[in-house]
Amino acid sequence: MTISHDVAGDGPTVVLLHSTVCDRRMWDSQVPVLAEAGYRVVRCDFRGFGDTPVPDRSTSDADDVIALLDALGADRVALVGASGGGRVGLEIAAGRPGRVTELALLCTAWPGRERSAELRAFGEREDALIEAGDIAGATELNVDLWVGPAADEATRDKVRRMQRHAFDVQLAATEEFPPLRTEPDPAAVTARTLLVSGAHDVIDFRETAADLATRIPGARHVELAWAGHLPSLERPDEVNALLLDFLRGA
Fold first, then answer.
1. How would you classify the pairing of strands 192-198 and 13-17?
2. Which residues, including other chains, have CB under 8 Å from residue 79's CB and lie 6 or more apart?
3. Where in the numbering of this chain does the AB hydrolase-1 domain appear (predicted)?
4. Superfamily (CATH) of domain 5-247
5. Quick one: which of 230, 210, 228, 205 has its CA closest to 220?
6. Under a CB-based contact definition with an 8 Å cutoff, are residues 212 and 104 in contact?
7. How are beta strands 40-44 and 5-8 bridged, if at all?
């Protein structure tokens, strides 16, 4: 199965990998800007998100993305990943370094660290709400944690709709399959790398960006003073400018 995706523009390929709070719609403000700037922009939905159904077996998001790129004839690409999508991007860039030219990780997740007390408490509260059947409450819990103060109400509502859709799709599944993941070695990444964190984000992701900046050769770390966990949604114009400068080698 090819995961759901769309393609816009022509030129070097840039692949946008969504946060697991969202789906590929989170990149609505980036796609036209990157396409107009001369890139072929690919964005996709991981399994169980957006228009891609839940898996019927244990699968790898990284392998799904590589299969999509093979189908599109995209041998070498730039990857832009947000949160959980950043983890997937890092897995690809470390495991298949010859295929990734640039790697931009926005508030990326990382499997190699223990969760903070704040994140553990969030997970316990989310589980309790879902167990009680309060999916609206679990959705709002996610919006409150992950959307930063720079976002307007329309952005909060967009995240709310994407997260609720993910809950509805995933909770309707009759069986759950654990994902197949590898633990990437950051030192194996050869792509030019930008790490972005938000000053209002959970400490886990801020520390992850700082740590990875020391472990990925030549990586640059930028912390945005105004940002929460989803800067590309919170202030898209500023993130678009940052991404274009990075992709152009500035």
1. unpaired
2. 14, 15, 17, 89, 92, 93, 100, 102, 103, 104, 191
3. 14-241
4. Alpha/Beta hydrolase fold, catalytic domain (3.40.50.1820)
5. 210
6. no
7. antiparallel
Neighbour count for residue 55 (Cβ, 10 Å): 21
Question: Which has the closest alpha carbon to 106: 54, 157, 146?
Answer: 146
Structure tokens belonging to residue 124: 């316990």
pLDDT at 233: 98
- Taking the C-alpha atoms of residue 20 and residue 221, their distance in angstroms, rounded to an integer, is 22
| pLDDT for the residue 175 | 83
Secondary structure element (H or E) that encloses residue 79, with its range: strand 77-82
Which structure tokens are listed for 141? Answer: 């819990």
Domain extents in the chain: 5-247
Encode pLDDT of 194-235 as tens digits. Answer: 999 999 999 999 999 999 999 999 999 999 999 999 999 999
CB-CB contact of 52 with 20 (8 Å): no
CA 193 to mean position of chain CA atoms: 15
Predicted pLDDT at 180: 81
Distance CA 7, CA 67 (A): 15
pLDDT given at position 192: 98
pLDDT tens per residue across span 79-116: 999 999 999 999 999 999 999 999 999 999 988 678 99
The residues pairing with 195 across neighbouring beta strands, listed in sequence order, are 105, 221
Which pair of tokens denotes residue 194? 């930008």
